[in-house]
User: Fold ATP-binding protein from Stenotrophomonas indicatrix.
Amino acid sequence: MDSVLISTEAYSQLADQLRAALLSKSVRAMSVSGPWGTGKTHCVRSTLKANRREAAFASLFSVKSINNLKLTLLDNIVAEQGGIRGWLARRTKADRDVYGAAIEKLYSGAAIANDLALIAFRSAVRGKVIVLDDLERKHPDLDIDEVAGFIDELMELSACRVILIMNSERLTDHSKWMQIREKIIDRELFYSPTPQESTAIALPGHHLAGMITPLITGCGITNIRAIRRIALEIDWLGEKKYSQGKPLREFLASFILMMGANLHALGQQGVMAKIAPDRTGSIKQHDQFRNACSTLLIDPDNEFIDSIDLFLRTGAMPSERIASVLDRRCTTERVSELQFESIAVRNDYFWDIDWSDEEALDYCLELCTESASFGDPHLLSHILQTLELIGGPEVLQSASPALSTFRTTLERQPREFTSQNYHPAILNVLASLQHPPPEGASTRPAVKDDRMHALATGGFAYAPVLKLSTTRSSFVEQLGSMDAADMRYVVPAMLNRCANIIPNCEHPDLEAAKAFQEACTQYVDDNPRTKRARLISAAMTGDYPAGQLESARNVD
Assistant:
């Protein structure tokens, strides 16, 4: 494991407990238990080094016998001292079992060889701190009783102190260990860092640490090696510099969940522990997986799942495919944010008396500049209308660079747009980019006039931006031309606005409100038997279309 750069509270606490145990003459054997990959071994090594304790280390991983374990410890000790045995081991990388076989071949009786090995071992380990790691990974042929006997031998015959490192929850003979541990272990230490602490150790200064940490926590991952592996596989995102929004979070949450399951590193509590990969590494998308996605607030059928599954099965990250989805999703999200900001600007312009017109115009121009780069005519139209509402038609000259960027974007990425009520400046750009229809071609259908719908939503103050007259005759004309869907919403909503405005004799929209009310009365009088007149008459008496009562009344 790499050096720990950050000492967390749990790590410091374990180091303090180890130091205290080493200073106590009554503590000869101690155990350190905790989840895999959390830094137990590193903490033991660092503490022994800081306290200048001479130690020998051995991993019990796949060790089949005590003799093999002794040779491993001897190998470690001699190699640390620069001896020939360690040098040969490093050069040949031979299996340590070969050493035992070689010794036996040198002597006619195995008993003599064992005695010589025992004499050499006792001398080599005398007075040292012996660290036995990975107890839970020992070979099934090595019984836990044999390990306990060996620890007792180290303490009694060689005056050693022993530190046993393990993940006790993973011991195959856990029940037997629980029965004999009190006979040999003087002090038990438990190390269980939080996912936040493990992430702080694993990813100091990582560009996505702030976003990854809560997701690692949600998955209950404490294995530092697993966290570093996850971070290694997504480092390429740093080159793309994606904004830390919903699309990136959905990808990271999906990746951490599936990668954590693939590495068997998910927390052992709750639904996460029930997610397991098959033999190919693919994640089974069953109820537990869907419930885990719900816990992480992500869609279990999101667009990233198949790409991540492909990576787990093949080892090749489909980064270009993932980047394409992120680009599209991030663009869509930012467009929505800009639309909301444009609406917010209008609201603040009317209601925030401390926000000057100059500041509002500067901010709106910034929105124009950014919006133009997305090539979205609806978005840019909305912001241009907001700009014009604040500064009047003459301020549109300031938006010329944004319109130029908009044109360039569309030239680079040509697209088809349906006819809508865009801002005139946008319509001019779109018209200049379209080829004239061939002779004899059918004309485009008439563009729907939805200005009254926009007026009912935004209020009379938007009439100048919409290029809509607020005279009685203009409103009568609109009442006769709106389609049924607009009529059902616009008339009740506008009449509700009028009822709120007219009692206030000083309201700036008073004349427009009176004009709409008069237009409704005139239309009913002029067309008494029409369906439109019946709808208007019903709205004037306080009736509303089914399903629209609240939405119409809540318009202010």
About this structure: Confidence is low (pLDDT under 50) at residues 1-5, 83-96, 103-114, 546-556. The chain has four domains: 9-193, 196-317, 336-433, 451-553.
